[in-house]
Amino acid sequence: MKRTIAIVGRPNVGKSTLFNRLTKTRQALVADIPGVTRDRIYGRAQINSEEVILIDTAGIADNKDELQALMSAQSEQAMAEADGIVFLVDGRAGLSSDDEKVARMLRRLGKPLCLAVNKTEGMDESIVCAEFHRLGLGAPLAVSAEHGEGIRDLCNALMASMPKKIITDDEVATGIKIALAGRPNVGKSTLANRMLGEERVLVFDQAGTTRDSIYIPFERDGQAYTLIDTAGVRRRSRVDEVVEKISVNKTLQAIDDAHVVILVIDGSEGVTDQDATLSGFILEAGRALVIAINKWDGLTNDQRDQVRNEIALKLHFLDFAKIYFISALHGTGVGEMYPSIHKAYESAMAQHPTPILTRLLESAILEHQPPLVRGRRIKLRYAHQGGVNPPLIIVHGNQTFAVPDDYARYLANYFRRALHCEGAPMRVEFRGGTNPFEGKRNELTKRQIDKKRRLKKFVKRKK
Q1: DSSP assigned state of 320
Q2: Superfamily (CATH) of domain 350-463
Q3: CA distance 437 to 130
């Protein structure tokens, strides 16, 4: 699974700015006042060629204010679940009592960490870092999250501080890895037992029974699978226990580790905002998807119509995924999901030749031309595959930086339909190509001038 790294520190030291810098997003709200981040924010980051899950945390402060106490508790829980920690301090403000409080907590945890002194742009690094040696957490590293200074050194030190990644038996499990994801008590463990044909997973009519992601290898009709039963994901404001908050992170890791995700939704409760949020994370992870509306047998016709309307309204962005109406308890419709699981897996892992993708690109452009940019048409020349799970198509051309989002979606949907990609989201990236004749025009002109001169000299000699 992907390792987790938490960014911690007292309020207003630049944690969200560093989070945005490493994830290359603007996911975390940034403002020059303390306390903007009040809950944990998860994101993906590529650190030294390893993809990790990054956690932006609220500031830890020695304050008796009830809200600040809750925010500090959130950060402490992030530290408990993290594999590595970046402890961020403010180089311009200097060492504070809150920094020392965080340092004491980190020493007790004994986890791999890096001490980063932020906001050091334009300052003498040796002087600004000197007082932070007192924290006893190793040599401080001077960085500027806002300007990107020292970030590469921080990444190198952070990955060097953590032990080499150990691949467990769960991670080398063979076959198609299927993760069951959903809110607590929607019937994930019941569905797992139904798919396995035995009571392998604890089932109890109380939310939060499953605390960790459970990997279970099994076979069906000669095909190997690994079923991942995950803990339920609920709205963070309703998550009180530390162990349950850690389970949320395990669920997100299991989604990343899967080939296909079955999103389980409780039909009796309809499609909730939490279902839509979780499906958004699955889509962001790029995982193949099958949607299972559970407890369908207990609904009236009016309730079923309402659920269908909610699916069309709240999950319209998952139009690539097949939807099944099932009863995990009685087994209705469960076996019918396997063909879609196979198709989604094959679509996510398929390799497509460059000539075919380029011809499809040409056909898509014939049907719908790219827009004009400053009076010039965007030229898309050829396409090739850049990866699987999710399938990634890379399109090369001129002025690709100006391709609007709606045209990118059009191309992604065109490729998906033409390649019969069912159950897996298709991603399209654009890259600008270099002109092979760029820089040669002047050389060609000089050659023509020299040729004219030689011709004039030859005519003069003849005369």
Answers
A1: T
A2: K homology (KH) domain (3.30.300.20)
A3: 54
Name residue 78's amino acid: A
What sign does the CA torsion over 379, 381, 384, 386 have?
negative
How many Cβ atoms from other residues are within 10 Å of residue 62's Cβ? 14
Q: Which residue is listed with tokens 């690094």?
A: 125
User: Which class for 281: exposed (0-12), middle (13-18), buried (19 or more C-beta within 10 A)?
Assistant: middle
> Residue 292: how many CB atoms within 10 A of its CB?
25
| The token pair that represents 233 in the structure block | 């994901």
The model's pTM is 0.61
Domain ranges across the chain: 4-161, 176-347, 350-463
Q: Residue for token digits 């075919």?
A: 356
Among candidates 443, 192, 151, 384, which has minimal Cα distance to 294? 192
Q: How far apart are CA 275 and CA 346, in angstroms?
A: 25
Q: Using an 8 Å Cβ cutoff, are 233 and 274 in contact?
A: yes
Q: Could you identify the residue written with the tokens 């407890």?
A: 295
Output the CA–CA distances (angstroms, integers) from residue 298 to 190, 267, 271, 303, 332, in the order listed: 16, 9, 16, 10, 12
Q: What is the pLDDT of residue 271?
A: 92
Which ranges of the chain have pLDDT less than 50? 36, 38, 169-173, 200-211, 234-246, 435-441
Q: What is the pLDDT of residue 67?
A: 66
Give residue 239's identity as a one-letter amino acid code: V
Please tell me the class of the 4-161 domain: alpha beta
pLDDT tens, residue by residue, 28-51: 555 555 554 545 677 778 888 888
Determine phi and psi for 288, rounding to 5 degrees. Answer: -60, 150
CATH T-level fold of 176-347: Rossmann fold (3.40.50)
Residue 411: its pLDDT value, please?
95
The per-residue pLDDT for 447 is 64
Same CATH fold, 350-463 and 176-347? Answer: no
DSSP string, 197-239: TS--S---SSTT---S-EEEEEEETTEEEEEEE------GGG-
C-alpha dihedral sign at 277, 280, 284, 289: positive
Q: Determine the pLDDT at residue 445.
A: 58
Alpha helices in 286-428 (DSSP H): 301-314, 337-349, 354-367, 405-418
Residues for the chain: how many in total? 463
Of 261, 423, 427, 255, the closest CA to residue 347 belongs to 423
Q: What are the φ and ψ backbone dihedral angles of 49, each rounded to 5 degrees?
A: 70, 5
